[in-house]
Structure formats: structure tokens, C-alpha cells
Amino acid sequence: MFRCIAAATLAIGLLGPAAAAELDPKAIAIKQADQLKWRDPTGAAPVNQKVLFGDPTKPGYYMVMNRFKPGNFSKPHFHPNDRFITVVQGTWYVGTGNKWDKDATIGVKAGGVVTHFGKQVHYDGAKDEEVVLIIAGEGPATLTPVEMAK
After folding, report:
1. Is 118 left (phi over 0), alpha (psi -120 to 50) or beta?
2. Mind listing the pLDDT tens digit for each residue in 57-80?
3. Is residue 137 a contact partner of residue 57, using CB atoms and an 8 Å limit?
4. In this structure, are residues 126 and 64 in contact, taking their beta carbons and an 8 Å threshold?
5. How far is Cα 111 from Cα 74, in angstroms, rounded to an integer?
6. How far lies 99's CA from each of 13, 102, 116, in Å?
7. Could you tell me which residues come within 8 angstroms of residue 94 by beta carbon, excluding any fewer than 6 positions away?
8. Domains (ranges, CATH) in the chain?
9. Terminal alpha carbon distance of the chain
10. 19-36 pLDDT tens trace
11. Is 84 in contact with 128 (CB distance < 8 Å)?
12. Nearest to 64 by CA among 42, 80, 47, 77
């Protein structure tokens, strides 16, 4: 009797995952991690990006995942629209103004959030570890460099 119950339980366990649920595509869209490709598949870029949804080059809402390699910082710049950033991995360092000084930045650890307000000058990056961010905003997500103070 025990063997019959064990065999039935095993069969249900093996068949259960194979019978995938059918979701209504009008209600939900799913992309698995392996379907989201990095812009630079070699991983050589100092900042790499995956587009999660939308198109950051066009008007409309978008969300991207950016990965900063250790030691990579942007120079002072601004964006036309607000951007909302969540630190997923590592500590991301942010500074403001047109005088670039990575030692005058504030660290934001994984789980922290930052808002870049449109048309306001800032710079940011990774110091000694890889950093992964989720960035959401209204496109187009352009970057305008500013002249750096000496």
C-alpha cells in the first residue's frame, strides 16, 4: 500500500510541473531572465544594459537594468526627465554639481532608491564592486554632458 501511495505521489509530482498554467496574455506579460539580453553580450562594456520594457530611446515609460563595472563613473550630466533608480546589487555612489569628485559622493546600498530630477546635474558610478540598478522613467532617456568645473 505504501509503495502505491509513493508511486502516485511521485507521478503527480513529475506531471505537475509539466502541465503549465495558461495565462491570459491580455492580463500579464512575462519575460524570463534568459529572454532579456544585455546590450553588450560580451560583458566588456563598462556600463551594460538590458531593456526590461518600453524603449528608452522613444517617448513613453521605460524600465532598464544597468550594470556598472567596478571603477566606472559617469561625468557630470543631466537627463531631460525624472528617473527613478533602485539599487539591486552593490553600493552605487552619487554626486551632484558640475565638479566631478568621486570622493564627494554618497553611497546608496542595495535596496536603496534615488531620484534624478530632470535637468539637474549629477554623476554616479561604482567604486570597488559591480553595481546593478533598475532605472525607470519617461523617454526619451537622453544624457546631456555638462562642462566640468576645475
Report:
1. beta
2. 999 999 999 999 999 999 999 999
3. no
4. no
5. 21
6. 61, 10, 17
7. 105, 106, 108, 114, 122, 123, 124
8. 22-145 (2.60.120.10)
9. 83
10. 578 999 999 999 999 999
11. no
12. 47
Grid cell 546589487 is found at: 89
Give CA–CA dist 45/61, Å, rounded. 25
Q: How far is CA 146 from CA 70, 97, 124, in A?
A: 23, 9, 14
Three cell numbers at 43? 560583458
Residue type, 105: T
Q: Residues 6 or more apart from 111 whose CB is under 8 A from it?
A: 86, 87
* DSSP states along 102-149: GGG-EEEETT-EEEE-TT--EEEEESSS-EEEEEEEEE----EE-PPP
Q: Which three cell numbers stand for residue 125?
A: 558610478
Tell me the DSSP string of 1-69.
Answer: -HHHHHHHHHHHHHHHHHS-----TTT-----GGGS--SSTTS-SSEEEEEEES-TTSSEEEEEEEEEP
CA distance 147 to 76: 8
The model carries a pTM of 0.81
